[in-house]
Amino acid sequence: MSHTTQTVRTFFILLLLGLLVGACSGTYYSAMEKVGVHKRDILIDRVEGARDSQTEAQQQFKSALEQFGSVVALKNTDLKNAYDTLEKEYTDCEKAAAEVSDRINKVENVSEALFNEWEDELELYENKDLRRASKKQMQETRSRYSKMLASMHTAERSMEPVLKTFRDNVLFLKHNLNAQAIGSLQSEFSSLEKDIDILIEKMNSAIEQSNTFIAQMKV
Length: 219
Prior knowledge:
Blueprint: H1 3-34, H2 39-73, H3 79-121, H4 128-175, H5 179-217
């Protein structure tokens, strides 16, 4: 098989997969609407889910920081147990961060479907004043949504450098299970503590934006 033929085949496979994913989403939303659950309801539910996952991630990062602090504060600790504890906390932080990203993706998926449907249905209006009012309402809702989503993504991006710092220090402890490793980690703790404080602030901002958006959508 020539390189060109394989490239073309790969392109069509990816295109087909993209169409299938889009169709599955559309089928899901259509099925939910038939039982009285509309895109607006799904959006609110998913924003609430994203907010809750960010709250859980906050607590997990705080827990990891507390464990990190307890390890560097001890002089005669069992280093193997210290590594096992921190490695578990890092893994839990990683899972929490992935959950936040997954929830945000789900919010974006349903919001895209909702706003596309809303825009398409504007053409169905016979009354121009009602169409104009609905369009204005759509634009205002989209503006609030965009602000909330930007805040979510800011908090999401802030998790990655903190995770990298955690990973580096856990690896360092793993590769150097001795008292000198603990001493070296002490200098990292203050920096990590500041990074997590900043992360918590950004998550609080995203959570507040989510709560505001949810309240306005439920009116």
